[in-house]
Amino acid sequence: MWKNHRGITLLGAGLLLLLAAGAWLLWGPRTVVFVLNGEEVPFRASARRVETLVAQAGLVLQPEDRVSPAPGQIVPYGEALVIDQAVWVQFYEDGILQSEFRSASRRPLELLAAGQILTNAADEVYWQGTALALDGELPRAPFYIFEIRRAASVTIEVDGESITLLTTAPTVAEALAQAGVSLAPHDRVSAPLDGKPADSPRITVSRAQAVTIIADGVETSAWVTARSVGGALSEAGVLLAGLDFTQPPAEADLPGDGRIEVVRVRETVLLEQTFLPYSRQLQPDPELPLDQRKVLTPGQTGIEVALTRVTYLNGEETERAAEAAWTASEPQDEIVGYGQQVNLSTVDTEYGPLEYYRSVTMYATSYHPCAFSDGCHNTTRGGCALEKGVVAVSGAWYPYMVGQQVYIPGYGRAVVCDSGGGIPGRYWIDLGYSDDDYVGWYHWVSVYFLTPVPETILWILP
What we know:
This protein is mostly beta strands and 462 residues long. The chain contains six helices and 30 strands. It folds into six domains: 32-79, no CATH class; 87-149, Beta-grasp domain (Ubiquitin-like (UB roll), Roll); 152-206, Ubiquitin-like (UB roll) (Roll); 214-263, no CATH class; 268-338, Resuscitation-promoting factor rpfb (Resuscitation-promoting factor rpfb fold, Single Sheet); 342-450, Barwin-like endoglucanases. The protein has helices spanning 2-27, 50-56, 108-114, 172-178, 229-236, 398-401; strands at 30-36, 39-45, 66-68, 81-84, 87-93, 96-103, 124-127, 130-131, 143-149, 152-158, 161-167, 188-189, 202-206, 209-215, 218-224, 245-247, 259-263, 265-276, 280-289, 293-297, 302-313, 316-329, 334-341, 345-349, 352-367, 390-394, 405-408, 412-420, 428-432, 442-450.
């Protein structure tokens, strides 16, 4: 019995030792491979449950972390505990934060879904300056910051052609480059080059052309994008005023050589006055002494105005045209009264006092029968013998004065019995002599017309 009991006891002890060894093998310390964020980290631990192993490793799990096997499970012998820690993820659009969260995923499509970011097929997602393949996988990083570039439809008009493209270029300049449109230094773009294509769905590129403008005596070079002469001048800051014109015309296309001449037009209006003379009218005045005159109504000169337009091209007169003429004021005749009042006076003479009704200052000459170029004439126009005491007056006076008695100081009494041609512009009297007593006269004298007063008086002496 003892032997048997001892054997049984030894057998039980062996079994216990065997079980202890097995337990030690199963539950004793061992090396566990952690795959932490893609890196293998050997770790010696006695625990087998995931959360216990994580705690023994000094790690704190976050809800977004990925753990395989899952927490609450036992890590099978020979397998690794894989932990992918979540990192911060940010999505920006036009510099504005759209979504921010933690995730352990490295796939762009999953991250977009997690951030509730919707994209179109043409949109692009950039990470570290590079457009991503959304169905790919990102390398591990401590955080992920993404930029979403929305595709915009842009129509570019250049050189008469239109190009339409979907672009995620952040600036107009990059969109133009993407479309293969190169810019020269003076070309003009309808949208700001640093602006967003989405803000300028239609972009016009105007190619610059060199022009030479001759204006105001100065030749100026400029780069313009306009295609008409007038537009080029406007871009160059050269203004047309009034009647100014250009060669070629402003509405014409730019010339091949780019030369434009501005012709400055200036017009002036001249007002020229011409004075219109007035006439003189004689009017009898019974209260005015004979041979005197008095202005009853002053004369007034009229004015005629002529308008002349003078045109200057680039400072030189090229045309002068009379456009209108009118009478600004009519001339007003002068009314002159001539005397008809006969007053009798006397003059002391060698014959004694003589009564006269008219005294006229006249230029005296003298003549005698043989003084004529065609021979000697002894008889006057009035039938008198030509001798001293016979005088001649002008033909205009003669019909009114023939037979009148006159007195000339230094000559004596005489009768008007002849006429002659007279001296233009002078009152004239020709003193008669015979050939034997002729005396030459060439000076002014006073001629007194003696009474009786004739019935017909020459009121105005011509």
